[in-house]
Amino acid sequence: GKIRFVTHDQTEHVVEFDTGTSLMQIAVDNAIPGVDGDCGGECACGTCHLIVAPEWFEITGTPGDHEEQMLSMTPERAPTSRLGCQVRATEAMDGMTVRLPEFQM
Ligand code: FES
């Protein structure tokens, strides 16, 4: 499937993904600017903050307690924010749009 990453300056990056890969890893593999994944996907750094397009939010599931804690410290947190490392891509996400925050922690 394909996911569309939109950076804060509205640049669109449409990338192929394999199911089971985290959104953070997909972004890093495709050199999407603004996703660092500093902690390697341990839900400990917050540098993989993504804002899911509202119509796609439900499909990404619900943030866990630890993710919720990290998100609560994220300055640009939006109602549909997720940590990219905590969301695994599924076929249902084909065509999904996610936005990058202006500043990544
Ligand atoms: Fe560190 Fe997601 S990669 S919190």
UniProtKB/TrEMBL annotation:
This is 2Fe-2S ferredoxin. It comes from Sinimarinibacterium flocculans. One of its GO terms (molecular function) is electron transfer activity. The keyword Iron applies. InterPro entries: 2Fe-2S_ferredoxin-like_sf, 2Fe-2S_ferredoxin-type, Adrenodoxin-like, Beta-grasp_dom_sf. Residues 61-82 are annotated as: Disordered. Residues 1-104 form the 2Fe-2S ferredoxin-type domain. Keywords: 2Fe-2S, Iron, Iron-sulfur, Metal-binding. GO terms for biological process: P450-containing electron transport chain. Pfam families: Fer2. PANTHER family: 2FE-2S FERREDOXIN-TYPE DOMAIN-CONTAINING PROTEIN, FERREDOXIN/ADRENODOXIN.
